[in-house]
Design goal:
- The structure holds 2 protein chains of 2 kinds.
- Chain A contains 3 helices and 6 strands; from the N terminus they run E-E-E-H-E-H-E-H-E.
- By secondary structure, chain A is α/β, with parallel strands linked by helices.
- Chain A has one domain: Transcription Regulator spoIIAA.
- In chain A, helix 1 runs parallel beside helix 2.
- By secondary structure, chain B is α+β, with helices and mostly antiparallel strands.
- Chain B has one domain: 2-Layer Sandwich (Heat Shock Protein 90), CATH 3.30.565.
- In chain B, a hairpin with a 2-residue loop joins strand 2 and strand 3.
- In chain B, helix 2 runs antiparallel to helix 3 and helix 5 runs antiparallel to helix 6.
- The radius of gyration of chain B is 17 Å and the shape is globular.
- Chain B starts with a helix and ends with a strand.
- Classes of the chains: A alpha/beta, B alpha+beta.
- Chains A and B meet through helix 2 and helix 3 of A and helix 2, helix 3, helix 5 and helix 6 of B.
């Protein structure tokens, strides 16, 4: 499956989904005018990719520093997809949750993800 | 405008702790530029870390909400989504002692008054813990549910309420001259 790369902008994140090496990364900020329109194709590609995997391990580096409420909602669905895959293939999904030391908003969203999606191996990393 | 009057306006704003003020057309491009300006101003005030992030987040939630709810004239066809000059709003960010306040104002169609009350009134009476619970619940809800108008499916107001250190406030006032069709919606949060 072809890798997915989208350059970031002021209101959209950089998306670097290296499907070929099972390494997914998202960074920057996310507050597009229409979050659903922006993220839906990304979610669809991720879903298609997960279907091609035969239990392989996936690593997701989550490095977003800001996302608005619409994006938050869609990101939640994204992690739901990863959790479903991890449920069918235990110990396959590692989520590295990069957050600034004093950013309680991002950390608390991460902890919500950890609680709701227990099949994902959640790993909080403080960015110095 | 007379230069003296404008001087007074600027000096008054400065002495009242106004960090940022805008009134005019709302488009995503305008919002991006304003967000950039606000970030720089907060940095200049040495407002780093959690507080600065929450001011920025509150600003974006409010102004995007204003853009989405602001009525488009039925006979106006924009040449592109970023050229929709029919959407307008005002927003102010200021500092009072050590707290930031953000107030946003925009016109809404009168028929949306009720749904805004229904969404905000319950939040206004919630404790911080209840807001957190409602936020979690809303996050788990299906993408859109039965709510096709609300872009954030109800998470936006809860995000504002969660980050505000004082209860959020709102007001709905009749639009002078267009009382039958339009209402001016004010929303305030404190960070």
């Amino acid at each position: 499956m072809t890798d997915l790369y989208m350059a970031g902008s002021a209101d959209t994140p950089e998306i670097d989904f290296k499907f070929s090496s099972n390494t997914l990364e998202m960074s920057g900020e996310a507050y597009p005018e229409n979050g659903v329109e922006f993220f839906l194709p990304v979610l669809k590609q991720l879903q298609a990719y997960l279907k091609t995997l035969a239990g392989d391990s996936v690593e997701f580096n989550f490095k977003l520093t800001y996302f608005n409420s619409v994006s938050t909602k869609i990101l939640y669905s994204l992690f739901e997809l990863l959790n479903e895959y991890a449920k069918a293939n235990p110990d396959s999904v590692k989520l590295n949750w990069f957050h600034d030391e004093d950013d309680d908003t991002i950390l608390s969203f991460g902890l919500d993800i950890q609680e709701d999606f227990p099949w994902i191996d959640f790993n909080a990393i403080v960015v110095a | 405008m007379l230069i003296d009057v404008f001087t007074l306006f600027r000096e008054e704003a400065d002495s009242n702790g106004i960090v940022f003020y805008y009134s005019g057309v709302l488009s995503q491009n305008v919002i991006k530029a304003m967000g950039d300006s606000l970030k720089q101003k907060l940095q200049k005030q040495d407002e780093k870390g959690a507080k600065s992030r929450k001011v920025f987040s509150t600003f974006i939630e409010m102004i995007q909400n204003a853009m989405h709810y602001s009525p488009s004239s039925p006979d106006y066809v924009p040449s592109s989504p970023d050229n929709d000059i029919s959407k307008e709003g005002s927003i102010i960010v200021g500092k009072d002692n050590d707290k930031y306040f953000i107030i946003c104002a925009n016109f809404i169609e009168k028929r949306f008054e009720q749904r805004i009350r229904e969404k905000l009134d319950p939040i206004l009476s919630m404790t911080a813990e209840e807001i957190k619970l409602a936020y979690r619940q809303q996050l788990k809800n299906d993408q859109h549910g039965d709510d096709s108008i609300s872009k954030g499916a109800g998470l936006g107001f809860l995000t504002l309420a969660r980050d505000s250190v004082e209860p959020i406030e709102y007001a709905l006032r009749s639009a002078v001259g267009s009382e039958d069709e339009l209402t001016c919606f004010y929303l305030k949060a404190t960070i």
